[in-house]
């Protein structure tokens, strides 16, 4: 039943992103109290996020394959729903597919690449000798890379929540349309019954 797979795949991916939120929160949204004077108060959270990302990236290949199958199933669900689309499918599923593809792009461009950088531990310009600083601004350091990953999680979560809202809106619109058609059919049947009674009299 691919038509229903899109919301379920989206729910699963949002759940996975929710697991990263405790790490992302202290990096993006709040400044935690400093535990050690003179040390960045976010440093323990950078370390926790880094360890978390390394752990996820080091998971067995089966885990990433399952995630990619879920992503592909969601994509297949949207494409299937857009085959010979109705107006509602074209609007809601088309917009959902655009948001979903934006999410896939964020996943590939930021999250996968960022996890590789975190796992390798090579931040900034790898061509520089150790201890040198890159002033060009073309490369991100450790903190900025982790902030980009945290922000990417948030962006991806918002995109996927948008997909879920659009799918819920489509369900509501279809239900409302079905109720209106049923009401119109009921009135039409009542009208026919009245006309038959008048003819009999």
Automatic annotation (TrEMBL):
InterPro entries: Psh3/Shr3. GO terms for molecular function: unfolded protein binding. One of its GO terms (cellular component) is endoplasmic reticulum membrane. Keywords: Membrane, Transmembrane, Transmembrane helix. Signal peptide: none annotated. The chain crosses the membrane at residues 62-83, 90-109, 148-166. One of its GO terms (biological process) is endoplasmic reticulum to Golgi vesicle-mediated transport. SMART domains: SHR3_chaperone. Residues 182-201 are annotated as: Disordered. This is Secretory component protein-like protein shr3.
